[in-house]
Amino acid sequence: MLPALRTEVYEANLDLVRRGLVIYTFGNASGISRAEGLIVIKPSGVPYETMRPDDMVITDLQGWIVEGSLRPSSDLATHLALYRAFPSLGGVVHTHSRHATAWAQACREIPCFGTTQADYFCGAVPVTAELTPEEIESEYEANTGAAIVRLLEGRDPLGCPAALVAGHAPFCWGKTVTDAAHTAVIVEEVAAMAWQTLTINPAAAPLPAELRDKHYLRKNGPKAYYGQKA
Ligand SMILES: [Zn+2]
Fold first, then answer.
1. Separation of 25 CA from ligand 1 center, angstroms?
2. pLDDT of 135-169, one tens digit each?
3. pTM
4. CA 169–ligand 1 middle distance (angstroms)
5. 226 part of the active site
6. Percent helix, strand and coil across the chain, each rounded to 5?
7. pLDDT exceeds 90 at position 24
8. Reported confidence tier of residue 229, pLDDT bands at 50, 70, 90
9. Which of 88-110 are b and which e, b meaning 16 or more Cβ less than 10 Å from the residue's Cβ?
10. Nearest to 39 by CA among 71, 67, 12
11. Ligand 1 centroid distance, CA of 141 (Å)
């Protein structure tokens, strides 16, 4: 079932390791077939070295397993909350990459200090509110997703393709799981850059709106001209 998506999700999971974003079994990637209403996600706790495409677990949008003998990632409910809230998403990736996670643990958004970030984010990488004791106690993973959904209320999720979960780590998304894994690399890079920017100059200011919008829109706007024509 869904062999192409299964392979793409498997490769995206491995890419997180290759890019140095994931150690041990941290992190997870999933993709969705909107036509089938099915999600392909990494299994829980399987070492990347021995993981195979066939180990990926297929569930429906409520999290019921449709195919696969392994348990799905324990963060499945967070992925499901994002897919249900945002129909434009085709893939979701979660890592504990060091610099992005440091910002999440500091409960600070990553300000948009430069054009590297503005090429992907029309502004800061936002951070959620801290979860309440009740949200942690019951349905923790679903409530993590709900916190991200609340954070993005009124925004196009593809215009802000990642968020930091306070005290936890980044979640990233995109039109495909490959895009989401790419964004995870960018989020880690801009997190490191922003930290170093503030180390050099603690009074550094975010990019002026004109320059931020220029970079964001030349790559993502209706008249985008960055790169080659598709
Ligand atoms: Zn996590």
1. 10
2. 999 999 999 999 999 999 999 999 999 999 999 99
3. 0.94
4. 6
5. yes
6. 40, 15, 45
7. no
8. low
9. ebbbbbbbbbebbbebbeeebbb
10. 67
11. 9
